[in-house]
């Protein structure tokens, strides 16, 4: 099992029928979902009924579990708000970089408790090969953007949104950090696909929220095509400074 998918609420159903496993790690339990006759495993960030808020997602357990079962390549799928009028509801944007404004989450495996201190390079946190493969499967060129990670579970204020846009952010979400950081610490090739479901506060006068099943299913079909193709999975690689 060398491929993994991490998704939010609404992404569990398309992967059924599936076998579930509670995988014990030094950082708690991770719930792994193995879709029938597929070469990948799925992890639901918020649990089946969206019972886990963003700041309490077991990020370290999820990534540790994926590494332990042999996963080396991972797609994250995130619902986000847009900081740009150009990326309206139901746009799909690939992550190119991130800005971290989270506050209370464990951000590393190398905290001295279970692993010795190491410093992971973050010049390219998102994997370009996985981004390109997703575009090819989707059949269209997609924009790249900077993901602004906030603590949640509240939404951001108008002043915060204005600030994030002014420093180069493109979309806002609550879950991609520390997920991307931990994936890179474990040497996983990781890319994150963002489904824009609304404009952020103050970007547009009218709030439009879309959770289009059509877009969600399009994303899933493309990810499935990448991972069920004849491509050769890569080995894990840790980039240390």
From TrEMBL:
Residues under site feature: Important for substrate specificity: 156, 209
Segments passing through the bilayer: none
Recorded catalytic activity of this chain's protein: a purine D-ribonucleoside + phosphate = a purine nucleobase + alpha-D-ribose 1-phosphate
EC number: 2.4.2.1
CDD domains: MTAP_SsMTAPII_like_MTIP
Additional comment: Although this enzyme belongs to the family of MTA phosphorylases based on sequence homology, it lacks several conserved amino acids in the substrate binding pocket that confer specificity towards MTA.
Binding-site list for phosphate: 9, 45-46, 78-79, 175
UniProt keyword Glycosyltransferase, yes or no: yes
Record keywords, A-Z: Glycosyltransferase, Purine salvage, Transferase
Coiled-coil region(s): none
Pathway(s) per entry: Purine metabolism; purine nucleoside salvage
SUPFAM superfamilies, alphabetized: Purine and uridine phosphorylases
Nucleoside phosphorylase domain sequence ranges: 3-224
Cross-referenced Gene3D superfamilies: Nucleoside phosphorylase domain (3.40.50.1580)
Summary of subunit composition and partner proteins: Homohexamer. Dimer of a homotrimer.
Protein name: Purine nucleoside phosphorylase
């Amino acid at each position: 099992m060398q491929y993994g998918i991490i998704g939010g609420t609404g992404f569990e159903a398309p992967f059924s029928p599936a076998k579930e496993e509670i995988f014990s790690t030094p950082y708690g339990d991770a719930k792994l979902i193995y879709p029938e006759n597929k070469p990948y495993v799925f992890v639901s960030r918020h649990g089946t009924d969206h019972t886990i808020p963003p700041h309490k997602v077991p990020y370290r357990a999820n990534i540790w579990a994926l590494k332990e079962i042999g996963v080396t390549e991972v797609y994250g799928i995130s619902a986000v708000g847009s900081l740009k009028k150009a990326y309206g509801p139901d746009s799909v944007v690939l992550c190119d970089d991130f800005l971290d404004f989270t506050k209370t989450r464990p951000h590393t495996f190398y905290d001295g408790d279970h692993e010795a201190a190491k410093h992971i390079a973050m010049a390219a946190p998102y994997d370009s090969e996985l981004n390109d493969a997703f575009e090819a499967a989707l059949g269209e060129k997609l924009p790249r953007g900077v993901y602004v990670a906030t603590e949640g579970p509240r939404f951001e204020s108008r002043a915060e949104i204005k600030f994030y846009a002014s420093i180069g952010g493109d979309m806002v979400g609550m879950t991609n950090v520390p997920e991307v950081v931990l994936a890179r610490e474990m040497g996983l090739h990781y890319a994150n696909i963002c489904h824009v479901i609304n404009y952020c506060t103050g970007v547009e006068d009218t709030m439009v929220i879309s959770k289009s099943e059509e877009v969600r299913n399009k994303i899933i079909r493309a990810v499935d095509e990448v991972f069920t193709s004849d491509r050769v999975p890569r080995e894990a690689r840790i980039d240390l400074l």
